[in-house]
Amino acid sequence: MDLSLKRDYKSTTPRLIQRHSGWVAPVSVLVVLGAWEAVARWGGLPAFILPSPELVLQKLAQTLADGTLERHTLVTLGEVLAGLATGGILAMALGYWLSRSPLVEKILSPYLVASQAVPVAAIAPLLIIWFPGVTAKVLICALTVFFPVLINTLVGMRAVPENLRDLMRSLHATPSQMLRYLELPAALPVLLGGLRVGATLSVIGAVVGEFVSSDRGLGFLINIGRGQFDTALVFVAIFALMVMAMSLYGIIVLLEKRLLKWRS
């Protein structure tokens, strides 16, 4: 093939993919559903091991009709939002403090890193004992969110160009003005990246807490389905968690586009 034709082919291929990318996701979903249906129908597996998509849809319609799915989803969503807000705010405040004080960072860093060596699932029973009720689930979510948002805050604040800090000092900017007009806008892309990660992790934290001890929520619904060998119910709860995580992620992406318009 002629070199010019090769270059034209390479340049037009990405454009074709971008132009027709709208059908990629629906087709991939249909392929997955078709493979799932084929395995469930001709694989000889009982329904309590792998229910067919039809059975899962029937269970979804049933749980929507009687309000079960809505009730448990709202409980988990409340825990997720409270944990995400608590962990995110505390992590950003501490990250800003550590970025301003290298000495405090050296003192606290070993403890912060060591805390991440312990899985949240291992300390979840202790939190359930110490903080009964919804508070424990919110704390588990907050702990899950805390570290990635903290690291992103620290990295974002440290990435602010020093010459811009010198410029703000030469203009006699106060610390609050420095934060509002320089540090926060400059670190915002990294901060929002940490929030995107934290939004998905917060859903995991809520489910871990509901697995340990709960009488409501999607994690509780998964436990009920598992105990009754109702695998279709488990699939419904899992899909609800996926939709919740993707929705939170999408909201933060939209927020990021809105807040970072000035970059373009």
TrEMBL record:
**Family per UniProt?**
Belongs to the binding-protein-dependent transport system permease family.
GO CC annotation terms, alphabetical = plasma membrane
Entry-linked PANTHER family: ABC TRANSPORTER PERMEASE PROTEIN HI_0355-RELATED, ALKANE SULFONATE ABC TRANSPORTER-RELATED, MEMBRANE SUBUNIT
Upper classification of the organism: Bacteria, Bacillati, Chloroflexota, Anaerolineae, Anaerolineales
Q: Which Gene3D superfamilies match?
A: MetI-like
List the source organism. Answer: Longilinea arvoryzae
Where does the record place the ABC transmembrane type-1 domain? 73-254
**Database matches in InterPro entries:** MetI-like, MetI-like_sf
Q: Which UniProt keywords apply?
A: Cell membrane, Membrane, Transmembrane, Transmembrane helix, Transport
What topology does the record note for this protein and the membrane?
A: Multi-pass membrane protein
> What biological-process GO terms show up in the record?
transmembrane transport
Return the protein name. Answer: ABC-type nitrate/sulfonate/bicarbonate transport system, permease component
Q: Where in the cell is it found?
A: Cell membrane
- What stretches pass through the bilayer? 21-39, 80-99, 111-131, 137-160, 181-212, 232-255
Q: Where is this protein primarily located?
A: membrane
